[in-house]
Design a protein that fits this description.
Elements (H helix, E strand, L loop, with lengths): L2 E6 L5 H13 L6 E5 L10 H8 L22 E5 L2 H10 L7 E3 H4 L14 H23 L1
Parallel strand pairs: 1-2, 1-3, 3-4
Length: 146
Amino acid sequence: MKDLMFVCTGNTCRSPIAEGLAKHMLGNKKAIILSRGISVNLEAPANMNAVKAMDKKHISIKDHKSKRFNPKEITDDMLILTMTSRHETYLKYHYPMLEDKVHTLLSYVGMTGDVEDPFGLDQEVYDQCANQLETAISKLMEQFEA
């Protein structure tokens, strides 16, 4: 099992959802699972709509605190999965030494497009985002088991 880091913009919606799902799906398998944001200046809790979307899946992210991406946290065996191609481009540009580790989540699992930011939208959009991430992370876990 690889270590995983999910990256989005503010680390309050998409990446904490992805982190929560991955930890839940991993069960008791050993791996480091993190989520980070590229534009985090102050620690903040997970967005309440993200928390509600995950509550519907019986997964709690209510204790999440946002953290800024820090390349010092990257392990030798870590895969960095971004929510959008813009996040991927940003990380590869600013941290070229990580180029081989950085991929968009959806392309890595054979899906197309980006995981769009639900921030500021209604609960239904957060629920759809959580469902999209659940599908993608299920595919990710299948890859690791194969």
